[in-house]
């Protein structure tokens, strides 16, 4: 595509002399701009991919892929419904469960929390909980023993064996009105699932104890369903709706987290567009440096044209000169971005140690560590986009060089 002569001339123009130092400085800034733009885009997109993967993974690990709720009141005859759902194609498991809000009271301090009650067998089949136990034993998940998150334990200064009081909004009627129902429970398990929201505001309780506490004898208020493929559950959802009929409503994890997932997608797309502007700005620097180079090399262009060089040769020389800046910036930007994204958690801890600040707060970002997942298809898109922009930036200056009239350029020489 490029002859040895064209490659030689492009290489010479990239190695500017002292008299052309300013052109070289602009070219250097163009290289740095493209390198930083590509690296930043890869890093940010990798971090956002990591956020999405971690958050969705933890949401799916703690919540069902689909949930069945009764239209009115609790589900009393849920055994037959469970059997129908289990016989549905694509369903992996069904967990009868009670889900309700309570008020947690410990030594005069009180705050709201969400209770999820299920049998010990079902509780043990949640890997994210079973693997996240930091104190206690899953075998003790019986009777009036409960499991709380590590952040709730820290907030109330609780440990295994301590007692907490839970108040249910469903109380008993009395001459003085409805009195909230309260009961004492023993902390037997402390878990850490890596998400602040669940560590601080969720309590897991044995199903039998919850049925007594919430006055739901032999009943539940939701069925938690795990599907074989959580990303492709439309058909499973339709089949479950047909199985339960009008007795209950079916919601999937996308319905429950629709605003959250949409916000992640919008933020991801907007960040991609914004950071692409960095590469475009760097491409304008290539245009300006190449225009200055063409103006400075007018006499050289005229001499080469009079010696037989064609317009296409001039075009390719200056395209190769400008594109080399973009190609080099893209290569080193990709290298820096991939290395940074791969070691981003170590870099974060190093910076926190140096500055003695909390750069990644669990309360704000919901996760206990900074995730990053490199998707090579996205990296290829970023690299391809940067290369195309770099080539486009050279077209006008190279066209100007190819259209230069040798007679006009040498008239006053």
Give the key terms.
17 helices, elongated, alpha+beta, 57% helix
Descriptive notes:
The longest helix is centred in the first third of the chain and has 42 residues, at 21-62. 57% of the residues lie in helices and 20% in strands. The model has no long low-confidence stretch (mean pLDDT 81). It contains 17 helices and ten strands. α2 runs antiparallel to α16, α11 (258-296) packs antiparallel against α13 (311-342) and α13 (311-342) packs antiparallel against α16 (376-402). The protein starts with a helix and ends with a helix. With 413 residues, the protein is an alpha+beta fold. A six-stranded mixed barrel has the order 2-3-8-5-7-6.
TL;DR?
By secondary structure, this protein is α+β, with helices and mostly antiparallel strands.
Question: Can you lay out the helices and strands and say which pair or pack?
Answer:
Layout: H1 4-14, H2 21-62, E1 66-70, H3 78-86, E2 91-106, E3 109-118, H4 120-124, H5 127-130, E4 133-136, E5 145-149, H6 150-156, E6 163-174, E7 177-191, H7 196-201, E8 202-206, H8 207-213, E9 222-227, H9 234-244, E10 248-252, H10 253-256, H11 258-296, H12 298-306, H13 311-342, H14 344-355, H15 362-365, H16 376-402, H17 406-410
Parallel strand pairs: 3-8, 5-7
Antiparallel strand pairs: 1-9, 1-10, 2-3, 2-6, 2-9, 4-7, 5-8, 6-7
